[in-house]
Amino acid sequence: MISSSIVRSQSIHLVTGLLVNHDHAWNADDNRQDETGAWLLDPLLDNITKTVYDSDIFLTEENIMTNIILDRFAEQTWKEYILKSLSLRNDIDLRPIAQYKKSQECPYYITYIIDHYYDLPEIILFSHGRPQGHNPNIIKQWSWFIQQVQQDKQRLFFNASIGYISSNCGSYVKRYTRSRPILDLLGYDRTVDPLANQIKALSLGTYCCAQFIIHRSRILQHPISFWRLALKIVIDMNDCSHFEHIWHVLFGEPGELDRQKNLAVWYEQAHPELTERCSTDIVND
């Protein structure tokens, strides 16, 4: 058990998901056996609470979790990481989530938003099950970000005005009209909404691949019915690839996200002595 003496920020929360059955990965060539969640045990993340969704585990009563997991997954790694290390920690809320054929991040991102819509923490870190895959230094950068927030009593470092930054490093992807129908389904009126008109004329641009930090005000700018509709669209489409290009728009950013709104950029600006830096490629999709 983690020590209860650690002071934990109640205003910052991390949301992620683990795919227990790697055969259900959205990409058949993607071996997900290393998605153990071991990174959640990093001491750098001890001072925030976390919600961890497990797809492929259908449970309704916590007291039967151990027997079901042990029956299905006999490997020592799962006993160590999921049972002994994750489910027994008081800073981790381990929850089952339905498997929507292809396991990607958008079902558990939106499920968390709906489940906690009326009691959201101030700042939320949304993460893949293997976050380092899109930013090898993400744990260290998250830790720095958390420390800055906790020391910032005036809420100047990250607030409702800033609202959103990407946590990824590498590709900045531009896409033109293919994600437009999703915005239409969600009610972005091309003729009335100025942002929708801008998106129609310009490209969408954001960092690959849907890991970000968000202020709760950006979620609450939409009614809960909006997020319920978004979850239905995700389930019906059985694919998160379109959402990767529009998360920032749903959270109030312009069609082409400012490239400075990136955790790696912030971290490197605060540490000019670094010799290893994140290089960004522009990809036209």
Describe this structure in words.
Helices cover 32% and strands 17% of the residues. The chain has helices at residues 65-72, 76-86, 106-115, 138-151, 180-185, 194-201, 216-220, 224-237, 241-244, 247-250, 263-270, and strands spanning 9-19, 48-55, 92-97, 123-126, 164-166, 171-175, 204-207, 212-215, 281-284. It is α/β, with parallel strands linked by helices. Helix 3 packs antiparallel against helix 8 (224-237). The strands form two sheets. Strands 3-2-1-4-8-5 form a six-stranded mixed beta sheet, sandwiched between helices. The protein is globular. The protein has a single domain (9-284), classed as Spore Coat Polysaccharide Biosynthesis Protein SpsA, Chain A, CATH 3.90.550.
